[in-house]
Every structure is written in C-alpha cells, then in structure tokens.
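Re-running the complex after MR caught last week's input typo. The corrected sequence lines follow. Everything else is unchanged.
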Amino acid sequence: MTKVPKFKLGYTGGNLDRADHLRRDAQAIQVARMHPSARWLVLDDLKPVLTEDGNDLYWARRSELESEGQTIFLGLEADGSPRFAIDCPIGDLPGRATDARAAGMRLPDDRAAIIAQARSVLDWHRRHGFCAACGAPTRPEKAGYSRLCTSCAAEHFPRVDPVVIMLAVKDDLALVGRGPNFPAGFFSALAGFVEPGESLEEAVARELHEEAGIRVHNVRYLASQPWPFPASLMMAAYADADGFELTLDETEIAAARWISRDECAAVLRGDGEWQAPPPIAIAHALLANWASGTS
Amino acid sequence: MTKVPKFKLGYTGGNLDRADHLRRDAQAIQVARMHPSARWLVLDDLKPVLTEDGNDLYWARRSELESEGQTIFLGLEADGSPRFAIDCPIGDLPGRATDARAAGMRLPDDRAAIIAQARSVLDWHRRHGFCAACGAPTRPEKAGYSRLCTSCAAEHFPRVDPVVIMLAVKDDLALVGRGPNFPAGFFSALAGFVEPGESLEEAVARELHEEAGIRVHNVRYLASQPWPFPASLMMAAYADADGFELTLDETEIAAARWISRDECAAVLRGDGEWQAPPPIAIAHALLANWASGTS
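Corrected-run output:
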C-alpha cells in the first residue's frame, strides 16, 4: 500500500476545520460573522490579499471591509475563530492583492491551502450565477457551498475536476513532455482530465496513449494535491510503458522525451538542459521521487 | 507503491478506444455515423437498452432509430466500428430498457463500463442545457463532450465528481456505517465528496472526522472506479484511526460500528448479521481486501 509521501505537496496541509455542520445552520454562520475574532480573506479579482511584506495572508476585520461581495465560510481556526473569504476589491486594506500562483509559492503550505479553497469556491460562484438546468438565476446557500436555482430549485455544488498526471517509466527511463503553450525549455509529466465512466488508472492509460501513443500497464498511484486554477484535483501516478516508440498528438504535446534518473536529478537541482515544474506542483514530487530511485 | 489490485472493479475494463482526436473533427464523426458498422446504444430515460435476454447491450443500427435525441460518440471497437449512445425512447427496438444499476451488476465489466460512460455523459447533457455563467442556451459540441454557450461562448465540459470512500482501521478492526436512507441491515464504508482546495487524503481525514468524530493518519489509496449515478469517481482508501471513540453526525450517519476481519469475511460470504455492498461497488473491494489481511 502507498504510504503518505514524505515530500511536501503544494496547497495541502491546511489547518482550518471546515466545520461542515455550520454551513447548514444560517443562524450559526451569522453568529460567526458577528464574532469579534472573525476575519476575512479578501480576493480582489481572485487575487488573495497578502500582508504588505507578502509573507502572510492579510486577515481583515469586518469593520475594514468596504464592499459587498460573494462571501464563503472557510472554517474555524484551532481557537474557534471563524474565517471567511470574500470576492471584492481591496479598497484601502493595508495589504497587496497578489497573483494566486505566486502567493502559493511564497507562503507556507497551510496558508497556500487556504488560498486554494477560497479561490476555487469564489471562482465557481463567479461562473455559476445561473442554473445549468433551466437558465434562471441561482443564489448562494450553505455558507457558499451550494447555489440554489430560484426557479426550478435545482441545487448546484462547487465543481472539483479530477486530473491525472503521470510518468510513464521503462528500464530506468521516464517520459516527460511539453504542451504547445509551455514556456521555452520547460518539460513536465503528461496530464489530462479524468472522463466520465473511467477509473483514474484507466484515465492514465488513455491519456498516455492519446498524447504519446504508448501503451502502459501497472498504474501506481502516488499522491494528490488540489490545484486551484480553477478547481482541479491532481492525482499523480507512475505507469510501466510497454515500449519507447512515441506518436505525439501535436495538438496536445509539442515535444516529448525519455529522460534518465541522473538527467532528472540534475534538472531538479537547476543544473540541466531544461526546466521542470517547481516544488508547488505535484509533477515535481513525481519526478523527484522517481529520480531518487522509486516509482 | 500500490499495484493495480487484482480484484474486479465494477464499471471498469471498457474496451472501446474513446478516440478523442475524432471528437474535434465534425466531418470524421459524420463519416463514422454513416459507416455500415456504426451502432447506437439507446438510453431510454437513462435506462440502457439490453438484448431481450438481458445478457448484453443492444447495439442498434441507424435504420432502427426512430427518434431524434442527444447523441454522443462513445468510441471505436477494436475492429474500428464506431459506437454511439443516444438519449431517446426505446420505440420498437427488440430489447429491454433496464435500470442502469441492475444492468451494471448483470453484464460483464466491459459492457458495464460502456453504460457508465453513456449514462454519465447523457445525464450531464440533460441537466446542462443552459450556460451557468450567463443563463443562455448551450449547444452540444465535440461529439457530445462539451457544450458551448450560444451567447457568451463559454465552453462547458462533462462533470466528474471525485468521491473518497474509506475504511478507518485500528488494531484489526475497521469502521463501517450506514446512512439514514440505507436499506435495513446494510452497512458500508464511509464516503464523501472531495471539496475544492483539498487533496483526496485530506478529504478522507475530514470526512471521517465530520461523520464519525475520529482522527486518522497514514491514508493509503487502494483503487478507483467510476460510479455513474450521476458521475462520481470513487477513490477507495484505508486510514489508521487514532482511537475508537465515535461521535456520529446523525444527519449523515445513522449508525456505525467497528468490525473484525472474521465478521467482515462472514458478511461478504452472505453469512453475517448485516449486509455489505455487492461486488460492483468498490466498497466491497475495500472490505474484501481488508478481511483477507491487508490494508
């Protein structure tokens, strides 16, 4: 069985108790909003507001919030203090609206995890003001964890999109590739969305065949991470390739190559001919774990 | 690393090549529809049409289809024959519209996998005729794998909802529970949706704490399966519980109990005091794998 990997995974490790039972209790949420220890993370156009030095989230008091905006309940700190996120302009807050990827890389993991939760759910609200079933307006419910249709009463929940990201391996070589829009010199593990009616193991095999023309067997799950752009669940795996010959789907993959463990280790040290994903991305853990001899 | 489990997983094992590259090519899809070897699986009110004896899918010829209906491209058989699914009444087809769960349990896995794909995607079309972003009508694109807004041009993709299903284990005991609406005498592994901004391992820990009041560590992924009611990706795991004391969330869990491996094995043989999920459900594999001594 897989043990929880020892390596760090970006956007994981959040410490808030999401306190799901409070979401269903509108009165309890109202009490939480009024509590003196309540704080809000502002996302200005989906950019989290950090402290001026950029080293922490800026937790605003209710009295500091100048604008209305979609609000979600994030959870409770260990001491019971309620935490919310709100989608509104930064106004005069003494902080800095920061790109969520940059903030995720700079902050400690427990803070990045809060950004992931807040950004994914607030972005979902932005794009789900109407009922997909009937076209009527929807309104937020359950402290921001659902939207209810004002006409047909359909209830809609925040979306999480499962994605597989994987290394095909064979004879001490692993397959990396680059999409047509990747930065120059950048390679990563191949990836793709899990489709309806398949397991994640089947999605790994299908994507590697579609994108690189290879068949694989023995798919082995490694670990997962949320990726809030907008709301993916990245699930990392290894798979044994049946052969080395590649047939690339050029709409998805501009180039691909088989790399050695030494080459991979050099690249991860910043000492190679190409660039790999940074540690915040689970592809980094896939590569590092394999370079160190396991898969 | 986890190996692909040897046990069978319901709704997995499909043999069709989904041929993603054809979906983007409207002309190729039209050629496929006109090909003499093309066949359609009819879903009548989301119930797949089986042969009269109930032992296989009924693959209709184009000339047999009496009604219009949302059509999706399923993929290609090994010999290149195109396969589609259509949401329309059974009409005079010489088959039987069958509950999808019953069909999934009766048919071989490769056939059940086709039902999972067809039912999930056709159900998604039924519930997504309008744009969640602006409320305008949407129309199907990409052979049924997306819907495009006729007003704001937003593109929407079929939804897959990741779900964790897990056994908390401690000292040769495992935790099973029953929801308020479960059939009498039926217990299973606890389960819940993965939320935005958490890994699947974090979702396992959160759900076990929310529903049963226990803390866990060392979450170990086992395997996954699609569950087309309507479009879940079930991901099964074990987790080590820190203690035995339970505090149930009674809106979610009506009863829970710690069971021994012997008790679990007896129940799976149909020889116990309660009932466990059938083999088509991954919870069965979770329980069987644990009863046989591993987790």
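None of the earlier attempt is carried over here. The longest strand of chain A covers residues 216-227. Chain A has a mean pLDDT of 95.
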